Amino acid sequence: MTPKLPFLNAVVIEDDKQARDALIHLLSGLKQIRPVGSAGSVEEGLLLLLKLKPDIAFLDIELSDGTAFELLDRISPQDALPRIIFTTVHDHYAIRAFKYAAFDYLLKPMQQSELNDCIDRMLAEKQKESNREQLVMLLQQISPPGKIRFNVRSGFIMVDPDDILYLLADSNYSEIFFSPGQSELVTTHLGKMEEILPPGRFFRISRSVIVNLKYLKRVNTMTCSCTLLKDGKSIQLPCSLKQIMQLKKLY
Asked: pTM here?
């Protein structure tokens, strides 16, 4: 029996009403996609994302009051980001777009075939992710006490949370650092890692980094950075000012 494909909610953030309506029309023709909202500016788009928490966001890069990058920078690490698909008439933003872990980058005017291909790949990835998460949960239940089992490209690893120094987002994967020079890439995105790790022992200092509070030694509010120390080796990581304020409440 073929597994049922997931159903995804989508929003469109585009300041050109004609382009916005055209994209919504294209999306409305796709069985697995449901357009649930639209906006025409950074301010409206930010409110829309925080309120609806969609699965996909189609973001025009150049908006009337700023850029899509500025919008994303204003989203807190605690707020789950949707899959981001940038839409633009300019191709010189491509490298920067993928630094924001964009799922895709589509040039306007958009073709139905390009949109279909993008959504098909996203649905396939979503299905794999769902299967992978179910497997991870199952493996965790049969793992030895104190250790967590994570899938890697070549198989799996067993990790004692106390051995983790910090975790870094790598698109839909996460890189676990055990020391400044030793790491493993696991096939679990950072948001899921935050759920899996023992509560109260780890803290998300930015959208892309989670640290083990056991090794936190210094927080610099002037440079917005955190220093971790393990086995005599230290590393400095950028930390958002908002998260520094949250961190203060823990101590």
From this structure: 0.53
